[in-house]
Amino acid sequence: MRLCLPKGTSPSSSQALWSYENANWGVDYPQCNGLRQSPINIQSESTFLIPMPALKFTYYDIPLKGPVTLSNNGHSVDVGVTPTINGKRPFITGGTLNGIYEAMGIHFHWGSSSSRGSEHTIDNRRYDAEMHIVHKSIKYDTIEEAIKHPDGLAVLGIMFKSSLKVNRYYPGLNKIFDKLPSVLPYQSSTPISGQISLSQLLGDLNTKHFYTYQGSLTTPGCFEAVTWHVFPEPLAISRSNMEKFSGILDSNDKPMINNYRPVQRLNARQVYYRVGLNALW
Predict the structure, then answer these.
(1) Catalytic residue among 75, 109, 120, 135
(2) Which of 48, 120, 127, 133 is an S-S bond match for 39, by CB 3.0 to 4.6 Å?
(3) Confidence at 165, pLDDT banded by 50, 70, 90
(4) What are phi and psi of 107, to 5 degrees?
(5) pLDDT of 279
(6) Is residue 109 among the annotated active site residues?
(7) Helix %, strand %, coil % for the chain, to 5?
């Protein structure tokens, strides 16, 4: 995952200095060599099933106040999450989270015509793409402050699986996919047409079923500030929509492909697993 930070902040000003190609981030960003780095390969047989509340999604079903903008930042395409039309930010609680986490942004990681591009892998399987919905703890006023703390951020990792025939319709995702041809050049942006809510991005995803662990941002500076929630059941996305990512250009005017970080060592961390249909299980 990456963060959309205001210009002039140190994480933002360094964004143009790194690349996914031949990446050796730890030289310039020592925390990228830390012990709680992301993404990881999730070995399902090694996870711990524990009782925990389901994630609760508040104001996810309320449309965001426009304009909602899709942008090409040179490393991904991202959507800034605005407050909803009722003036409140969508937020999540539950799981292993302690407190309220407000949604701040959405971005994507993908592969190429010959490779898959999710960041997390599950039992060594990589999916075609991965969407990240980034949330900030309300304990901290800004993302710049939140990334200094282990409980600063919570991110939802949602897998995409490309399919020739898709019998599901994701209205929010389709609005984003429809606008991808408008953000092919680096630093281009475009408003998303019509109203969009975060629940429209989740479709029929089983949000009661997820893995969670303590990790980091997956781009420099790799701050170890993230509680990850990775959903193992992918959303089926049409191949025609997935192919729209292939025309996007990076800051060097080259095709933006394989914009994912390799999996990192789990080290001494534990990955927890939640499965169930009701409030507790």
Answers:
(1) 75
(2) 120
(3) confident
(4) -150, 175
(5) 39
(6) no
(7) 15, 30, 55
